[in-house]
Amino acid sequence: MFNKFKDQVSQAAQGATAFGQQAGRSISDYAEKSGATKFNSPVVGTLSEESAKAARILEQFILKEEIENGFDTVIPVKVIKEAKGLAIFTVVKAGFLWSGRAGSGIVVARLPDGSWSAPSAIATGGVGIGAQVGADITDVVLILNSDESVRAFSRGGNVTVGGSLAVSAGPIGAGGEAAVSGDYSSRKVTPIFSYSKSKGLFAGMSIEGTGLLELSKTNTGWYGRSVKAEDILKGQVPAPPESQVLYDMIKKAEDRDPW
Question: Is the model's pTM score more than 0.70?
């Protein structure tokens, strides 16, 4: 039963990824012609491109100048500092004769010395029945709060968010940090916090049941050899210079003045 479900998720993710690439290219072409540039592509790119995309997405959630309502809507500093890992990706939802959702991004893990692993490529996807006219792009940050949640991304294959690992909307602002401080102390914090934004606004998009797929071929292309997500997230692949922009943004997120 589990293997059958896993195969179905894999097929849906792969099919939706192809859909996302087609839709993403159409959106990219439209944006280029119209002069619109403030969106992140759902199409998987080079290691440098995906690292820069992840840095831009994270910046939207941590810097006051990027957020209309100021510090009351940022990811609290403590949430970033306590994170065991981060999964950052862009999702496009679009439809013509049928609807679909697909996207791409990366996952990184905090290593025992406090540094961050090299990125492992991930994709998400799903298809549905029923027409949906137009498209919407959403940026997502998942805070991995437990070793178990990081291991889920290390095993290869698919991760179903909200399956064996609970997920909840992440706390925001000063009030949110105060609310979860006790949870960190008692180790009762939810395994995964989710944050999402569409067009610069907190979207509140539900990712319950979302399948995330390891892009093993993309990782091979990035690192020049066949490498497992587990090895990447355990630090057995050196942190690439192409990802320094992401590491710098994470450090900025941890070092910023809380309020």
Answer: yes
